[in-house]
């Protein structure tokens, strides 16, 4: 919850962007004394106007407020930048700050025209609703097809970290977008904040992979108020941020629409973490593998053949050294079948644990993903026209 | 048809590897006078035993016969190399040649034990059935879940080229494997054959992408008998091989199981062909895009966002220059919506034509793919245990 640390107010209200009439606009305000901020953004070359705006806002390591809307992603929209600017300016006006201190995030359909009016009017309502217990409302207002809000908290040595996020992947009708705001009352500088956020995102959000599709809007922000008066050790603080990110990432995978299984793809005994991660990603992005898990089929051939697409220079291993364990059952050893497929049970738990041992070192990496199901196809086809 | 050129005999028989009792073993013999051969193989690091064997056989540019089985891929099988060797040795014995002149190809399930007996006995039957009109039977015997055999022919200036293939992708219950044998009675040397086959495969088979999954068994062979006595121009010959490969590639996409649309992803106005191809592949591998086409949804946002994942160093373009045409309707121009989505008709034709104009040059590339459907999920999950 983003109002868990001291120094933050938030709200979530209905601005009228969603046909459903559900909450669609969230406002988060950092009341200080610090206004330190950090950001991590999509690396897609096609980015939404709010991403262009907010990257610029955070470039000086400062931000006073963030306004987030669901219902429209404001990407590939004619005049979309003016809408983003108007929204930021309205926030600045009601909070008596300047627009260049206001981040903007949007999620929803792509390429559908968005007018500034409901956003500007919504900002006034949201400002009036701001409260130091408004974190839950904000978390609800950024949901698209998420079935539940996603929040996390962390506390250590007198300071707190809170977070909210909306889901990654499988989100009809537009792109799969991840938005996340993390707040803290720790006393940190912008550099520490950016390092903690970047390293945490890399180990958490960048290791969940629902469908290999990168959004145009993905944004993760960290705001520090310093209101606790506590200056944490940089590494301890980064660990705290990582815990909050990991918690939110797991909630996203657990709420990915259309999925019937969460899958942890663990690649172990690798020569390097980079190599282990490349192999884990290749497996997590294999449609054949993801369909097999949906069918509760311990089809390990699809696991090793996906691994085999990773260049040897990235992840050295010998095919004859490979072992595959599915939910702890060794179905493949020394690269060949062990005859134990029938012992694998994937039906009694939503979580499926895949371990691929490369036999070439001591490093490892895990990627979380989901199975590929009928409902995924439905979410992303039948309901979109 | 592989017996369309002079100098070839073929057969297709039932060896008993398939529970259905359908034909599952094909034999192709080059009666010369030449025994020139070329081969292109999967680049997956996990390869089937027959791939290891046949890569070695073709390394000297010569091959006298090829035996192909469906029903078992012979990959990750203990003792699988001995089975491949025994099969090749039996072919050598009945044809009075040596085993190192015999190629072996397998397709079917992965990791299921394969014994040599049915293959060895099957080779005897296949040898007795060899005929100069046996191409159709051979094409049928290599089918797995293909619904129809895939054959192509080409003739020019007194020489002929013939080909057969089995499908790519979406093939339950094992991996998606492509096998292809091309025959010619042209007089060519091994180097010309290899160049023609490699360049043709690169422009055809390597530009169809059903699900981004690379098989452990993919094999494309070219056998030249020289029986026409005609020595073609190397470029003309390569063009002929490419036409045969293109014809077979289109048949594969048209028969990909579970698909309801064939999709031609054309990336045009690119700075380089390599860049155009990278962008086309990124789009063709986007599950979100493929689901949208299944839903007959002209969701061009998913097309440009997939394009945006390709590094600028590979394919330079400005987001504001992009145009997207779906079945000829410009749904996006200058990077924004044109308001013409409703004009797009994807329901009256199985083929959907996507054109993404990068606005950065004159090069182009096309990748053929399919939509992502319920039936794809079914083929690759429910029927596999």
UniProtKB/TrEMBL annotation, chains A, B:
Protein family: Belongs to the ArgJ family.
EC number: 2.3.1.35, 2.3.1.1
Protein's UniProt name: Arginine biosynthesis bifunctional protein ArgJ
Domain of life: Bacteria
HAMAP family documented for this protein: ArgJ (MF_01106)
Protein residues bound to substrate: 144, 166, 177, 257, 380, 385
NCBIfam families per UniProt: ArgJ, PRK05388.1
